[in-house]
Amino acid sequence: MPQFPQRLPTHHPRDNIMGYRCKCSAGYQGNPYIENGCTDYNPKPKDHCPVSSSCGSITVPFPFGLQERCTANDNRFLLNCTSFGNLTLSVLGDAKYHVTDVSVENGTLTVSNMVGGNQAKEAVLIDQTDNYGTTVSTSVALLEDQFDFSLEYDMVIKWAVANQTCQTVMQKHTMYACLSSHSDCLNVTHGYIFMGYRCKCSQGFQGNPYIKDGCTDINECEVPYYCNGMCQNFPGSYTCTSCPHRKDFDPIKRRCVTLAKQHAIILGIATGTGCGLGSIIIAVCAIVLANKWKKGIQKRIRRAHFKKNQGLLLEQLISDESATNKTKIFSLQELEKATNNFDVTRVLGRGGHGTVYKGILSDQRVVAIKKSKIVEQTEIDQFINEVAILSQIIHRNVVKLFGCCLESEVPLLVYEFISNGTLHDLLHIDMDVKCFLSWDDRIRIAVEAAGALAYLHSAAAIPIFHRDVKSANILLDGSFATKISDFGASRSVSLDETHVVTIVQGTFGYLDPEYYHTGQLTEKSDVYSFGVILVELLTRKKPIFINDLGAKQNLSHYFVEGLQEGAIMEIMDPQVVKESNTEEIDDICSLIEASLRLRGRDRPTMKEVEMRLQFLRTKRLRKCKILPTSEEEIEHFLCLEVGNSDARMNVVNAGNLRSKGISNCYSLEQELSSSLTMPR
Predict the structure, then answer these.
(1) Which terminus of the chain has fewer Cβ atoms in its 10 Å neighbourhood, N or C?
(2) What pTM, to 2 d.p., does this model score?
(3) Catalytic residue positions?
(4) Are 52 and 123 within one domain?
(5) Which residue, among 385, 419, 387, 427, has the nearest Cα to 403 in the 3D structure?
(6) Which domain of life is it from (predicted)?
(7) Would you call 125 exposed, middle or buried from its count of C-beta atoms within 10 A (0-12, 13-18, 19+)?
(8) H-run or E-run covering 616
């Protein structure tokens, strides 16, 4: 019996005899009168039809087609391409789907956006027999109930080329759809329902199994990650072996390459790294060597400064065993550290000759470091002279020299720190403030300063002439004890000399007229200058001051003229007039007059000045009924003028004096240098 025959009634017009004839069912073709003569698949595409066509961006391979009679079945595999380039599939008459993908390899169609009719969850492009045994001759048979389909999702339709099993069609070579020699037949089912068969390229091949030679070999050696070694391709297969020794797989070239290049890369990286590290090491070494070179240069420069500043000579001058422990030659590094590299916040005072800094040594001693501005050789000689002189002096009323530094371009002196400024500041700064030294304090300061100068002239190992005695060089320490300072202009003389001839140096107002005219420096030159200081203590006027007429006037001449005219009380400081008496005024005026005589031989010696001042102070203490019981230092006393009916004598110690007298005007931390306020 032919497959799927249909009997058609036949009427013979002559004898009116009824009969039948055969016809292949819809969707089938062939000879219905022979066994398996009707087939539902034409295994070969027509000669005039392409093996594949396209619609828009979608490729339509055989057995599908876009033209009638160019598909494996005229109805079931026919797709429509619209004028807009959209591929559609007609199902159940008016139901159409947009086809988005045709896969021969997987045997599926991907469709979406149904236009008309109902949508099926899954359809099969084969003829089926319904539950009543009736053949449904349509292009698509629904396997499940119809349902509403959301257009947001695609639907996959399975298909089979014919409703036969692989075992059956493989025996009928003329109807076997898998024409490619490297293809296989697969039975297609949907759940428990048999759908038919379809073709697929064998493993290791790809292409279209429905056309002759449609399945071609896959070159696995060219596919990434298939083989990372030596690869050899065979039809449908390949072999992969690891790369031989000293070779490695190159993923770009897809083959094994020698390691020379990689070694070169590694060598290059190692070389670069080594060069980088070497450069860093060289740079560090260069910096270290440069620093050492700079330090070497600095060391040589400092050594050169040390020699230029007469350091070798100074070492000999202070090499005496008695002075070794008192005077030290500091390194520049020590003083830079003590002053925070000479920070401006450490400046105590500035003047015409230089700057004084406050410093803290490594042993926590607070010092004053004097840095001169002038670097002329004559100034350096004076500097060395000052160090040499101060290193010999041991006196409580002479400022203590700790040492010096000769490694800088400008020599540096390191003194003990004197916290309460100078006598000049105490007498002449802030004149509008009503703040006075008591008469007893002025006498004490004069006695202590005279005693220090007398020691320099007669008691030192070598007589020393200060040559710049002035109130700015008389310092006051924390307990307001007197300290003579600034020996830069001082000169030492041998015992058999009475004077030395020098270039005139000193400060106008204090300068000895005889020394000024002759250039002969004697101890009496310091006596004259000290006489001017006594006038300052009495009058509280500067050595060169502005008189009532607005003109500059010399204080010593002004005082001598007042003394000669008997008007001495008018030019006295009111505080002195209030606290002293006539006898004391006469005594000290007599001493001043003798000290200010024009000829040096008519002046008293410094020792005589000290003794007369001591005698004056002793008499005052006796009048105040305070008698010392020993030769110990007489303390500070404040005694009001005797004879005043309302006066009472107040006796205080040094601490009370600082709290009630001087310290009312001047802080204990006034940090001014003695040698900076008055020009020489």
Answers:
(1) N
(2) 0.51
(3) 468
(4) yes
(5) 387
(6) Eukaryota
(7) buried
(8) helix 606-623
